[in-house]
Amino acid sequence: MDLAALKIDIAEVPTEENPQLVLQKSRDFYWYSPVLKRQLDSVKADIVARPRNEDELLLVVGACFKNEVPLTVRGSGTGNYGQAMPLAGGLVLDLCNMNRVIEVKNGTVVAEPGAILADIDKVTRPTGQELRMFPSTYHTASIGGFIAGGSGGVGSVRWGGLRDVGNIVRVKMAAMDGSIPTVLDLSGRDINRVSHAYGTTGVITEVEMPLAPAVEWVDLITAFPTLEAAVHHGEALAAADGLLLKNVAVMDAAIAPYLRRHKPYLPDGEAFVVTIAASFAAGDVAALGKRAGGRVVLRTDTLEAEARSRLPPAFELSWNHTTLRALRMDPDITYLQVLYPQPGIAGKVLKMSALLGEEAPTHLEFVRFDGAVGCFGLPLVRFTTEERLDEIIALHEDNGCPIFNPHRYTLEEGGMKQTDPLQLGFKRRSDPKGLLNPGKMIAWDDPDFDYGRPYLFPSLSA
Amino acid sequence: MDLAALKIDIAEVPTEENPQLVLQKSRDFYWYSPVLKRQLDSVKADIVARPRNEDELLLVVGACFKNEVPLTVRGSGTGNYGQAMPLAGGLVLDLCNMNRVIEVKNGTVVAEPGAILADIDKVTRPTGQELRMFPSTYHTASIGGFIAGGSGGVGSVRWGGLRDVGNIVRVKMAAMDGSIPTVLDLSGRDINRVSHAYGTTGVITEVEMPLAPAVEWVDLITAFPTLEAAVHHGEALAAADGLLLKNVAVMDAAIAPYLRRHKPYLPDGEAFVVTIAASFAAGDVAALGKRAGGRVVLRTDTLEAEARSRLPPAFELSWNHTTLRALRMDPDITYLQVLYPQPGIAGKVLKMSALLGEEAPTHLEFVRFDGAVGCFGLPLVRFTTEERLDEIIALHEDNGCPIFNPHRYTLEEGGMKQTDPLQLGFKRRSDPKGLLNPGKMIAWDDPDFDYGRPYLFPSLSA
């Protein structure tokens, strides 16, 4: 890597070399995991570049290729798996300056990758449209980072996962394949070459996302005497094709204390379901909850304005914001990502809850998955040792509940358990020198890796 | 029944007594069924009333109560089961004059029951919204008739059935319970008291329906060398949570000749899938079809304007318009309504196709059903005798495919196979004299009826 030559080549692009600021931009939300915190705390780039447009972006990518400088792309750095952290040093490509919403169409929006999700919706909402799905970091996360590192979230209960066909319309990307990088417009299945690839196969320069109707949304919380009743209500809501819902989360009673501002509404010792529903569907959600044995303890459409203004939106109680809130109050808490497969979702959830009890309070997020109801768990885990964490993971897997391990920074170990041949094959052409986010795709670094043990990128074992 | 007194009581309301016109308004599309045609051909009301507003409607309902005149409500009369036919004579309440769209909100529309579906959308579309679902008679059917007699249709592949919670927001109805009828505003589960009740429990006076985003829709037809490949493609499309689709119909090669204007695009001997997709999802639909072994033979977004203008919209090839087109060319054709249950939809479809061959060409409509992919069949049936029709029905049921018999005019025999206790209980209060659409709810007329034989209303056996 020839950093001196790189700096000359990209002189016209804004850069940052102040060590404290470079360190800050070399981090994401990896500290959700005590394991990643231990492994990645010293990771740091050499320089941060902040291109203001596609021309500048291509200049940086081309200069990195020429000077053999590793490049790690970063949106807002709100990912949880160290995916935006530069294990091999080099350059962090911070896309915060490429944040324009380019065009709102009938059904889609075109934006630069650094555009913040909430800012995109500010532009689309006057047209009666909004993004279909977003992570709980909606107010800070970028659309490019969501595509490169996310998998779904709020909205997935209607639209499925981000990688499901139709949920990304088009992605424009730059390859790391020459001093003048190749630019590709990907649609259809080809989008998977860059989606959820942590920026290992290319740099997203523009995206087109499908939109959903922007209706008025209402937050509801329904409390239940048992976790079982809450799980059944959550599953019934997720199965209701005619109810326009944006999110359905189920939480065990032990989670209530961590949702501080909502705590006054949450009855002690009761499980609860947090739902985001179209205003005209809120009455149906409430009625279904009552018939399932619950009582509605909060409805933002009937709450007085002042009380409402003190509450964060329900999506900031959901997905990884649940974990975040617990973590802030108790630094020993971490989490897992579980899939409770069909059929018999509720049975699997209750079994794991019975096996782990207070060590791992239940937190579920219902989604649509291949045309049916799916259920992910993000249980809080009271962390003791890495060995015990591995035992808890094994206990889930032994009981038919696969884990997408959030304590690993590689693509393969996080979820897929195997190389994506499409991404690997594409990387051979789009990044022949292996400069894009080194260390995140095991299949590239160590094709013969034995998945029986955790992968450690060479620079980290020094 | 005192018709003379009735006429005096409703003198201010427009009425019709010309026998030809009364006969015409005493019919619906019952002639889809050779069985119903034989049974119902002589059915005729005594008078037709056409109120212009809710006050006039209530005057007619109250006068019928007072003078004990049977009342059968009618929208546009596009139903197929004789549901709008006055078996006991009396008054037909034709709601064609109550056709106003009252208000378009963010997410819903409020309309009078006689409003035509296509006319409602003309008002909602400038707001970027449209009805979620409609029958293939979109251009002629009324919203009240759809709710009272329909079950879903185009749009159900995303939103499920009309009776699924959330697909009707509110229904205002008049009971037949006094000279001044009680008016009720129903929401939530109470809506089922009048939805799909054929007007036996009350008269719908106003509805509020949820809306979906009004995007640009594209019709696609993909041809496949085998029915099996077409069925698998249809099921895959229906399962794609992220694809914004409005309809997915699968048809065997034998149906092509009946779709006359589309015939030039349909390869001889090939099965085909007719899809209505959001314009930004059309490329994905085409790519999925190709990967499933098909070829796209028609895409309205790439067709030249003149050719496109000669084609009816794809929804008029679907649901009962498929039957209608066949029936027009061959009067011996009728149809059935089949449910192919999960799991193993494709296997059941192919088995029935193998058993019946050319006698009942396969026509499928994919929907969402309780949170999963559902599949209804509307096979064309080359009618010979009523006995053979019953054999074909039995053959389906023996192979695990329930039939919703479209050759019966009662609520129970058509689909539910049993009384809806909610509707029956409600009717006791809302129609104590049994004047609303007599003969359509067996449980009311003959609580001890043995469902082993077809029900015949007394006046029809004369």
TrEMBL record, chains A, B:
PROSITE patterns recorded for this chain? FAD_PCMH
A GO BP annotation: lactate catabolic process
Q: Which Pfam families match?
A: FAD_binding_4
GO-annotated molecular function: D-lactate dehydrogenase (cytochrome) activity; D-lactate dehydrogenase (NAD+) activity; FAD binding
Q: Where is the FAD-binding PCMH-type domain?
A: 40-214
Looking up PANTHER family in the UniProt record yields: D-2-HYDROXYGLUTARATE DEHYDROGENASE, D-LACTATE DEHYDROGENASE
- List all membrane-crossing ranges: none
**Keyword Ligase tagged:** no
Protein name in the entry: FAD-linked oxidase
Species source reads Acuticoccus sediminis
